[in-house]
Amino acid sequence: MAEPLRPFRLRRCGSPQKFGVAAGSLRGLLRKGCRLLQLPLAGSRLCLYEDGTELTESYFRALPAQTELVLLGPGQSWRGCASDIERLLAAFCSHQGAVVEAARRLLTDERAPHRQKLLADLVHNLSENILAEDKEEDEKWFEGLESRFKNKSSYLRHSCESRMRGYMREVTGFISNVHPSARDAYRGIIDLMAEKLKSVKYNGCYFDRREKEEAARLCTAEGWFSCQGPFDRDDCPCKHSINPYSNRESRILFSTWNLDHIIEKKRAVVPELAEAVKTRDGREVNWEYFYQLLFTLDNLKLVHIACHKKTNHNLSCDKSRIYRKRKQTQEIS
Questions:
Q1: Residue 213 confidence (pLDDT)
Q2: Span 228-248, average pLDDT
Q3: What does residue 223 show for φ and ψ, rounded to 5 degrees?
Q4: 322/317 Cα distance (integer angstroms)
Q5: pLDDT at position 237 over 70
Q6: What mean pLDDT is predicted for residues 283-308?
Q7: DSSP label of 54
Q8: DSSP labels for 267-295?
Q9: Cβ–Cβ < 8 Å for 285, 210
Q10: 217 contacts: CB under 8 Å, gap ≥ 6
Q11: For the CA atoms of the chain, what is the radius of gyration?
Q12: How far is it, in rounded angstroms, from Cα 189 to Cα 196?
């Protein structure tokens, strides 16, 4: 007894056009599809549009009517919706100017708020001038900044330096909480840290895409920064990314991203430093360890504001590294 005909939506690989085809078996649908789309029957096969699952006869019988399918010719493959997204991104890259103009025309007449937002974001993102570096190449990027900044990297470097200077001010300001008998030693350590920071130009290289080796842990050569995720994760669950070199708005938004201390600065590192100075009892405080925790990527993660968890991290300094190991001297007999 023949299976009853059921309707399906069929499309060729790489084409958005869909055709309604009815069949009672996988073989019958494949034969009709190949005839309709002018593909050879030998070597062709059918798969789900959604995820690329290739159909078998038993799988076909379980499918609901109107399921969207893709007909693949010999040698073709389909990875589901991701294949369409890849084609869309390729079109954006190869016809960027035309896409921007088309989006602008649509935006002129669009009244639905959600569609307006999508079109405005599209125009904004495709109008970026990422590779421009000097002020003369992208004057709009520099609007609202002091005239002393002549290129993008110098401003981003300054932005990172300002954060480091702010951390230094917090460490210095904590001195009122240090035991009076230990304040001179605490000031001495502050001076050593300040000198170290000054020698490396306040680690401004972290945000400077020209400093390829130093900045590589945070950004690409073009200046794309990816969120490194909350302190308790190894990645960003939302895949946040930003390129502050691209346009003025992204530059401003980047200022809301945080360099988050994994072992917290205020709750753990600075209080531990003050305690170490107070209880050193002749030992030498390992100030370089505290410097690493406060000012370097050994203990700093770049995070989107939504991934910045301000709750207690419940992490503490490594007790074995708070003091330097004493050098052992050998007596000569």
A1: 83
A2: 91
A3: 100, 20
A4: 8
A5: yes
A6: 96
A7: B
A8: IIIHHHHHHHHHT-TTPPB-HHHHHHHHH
A9: no
A10: 206, 297
A11: 30
A12: 11
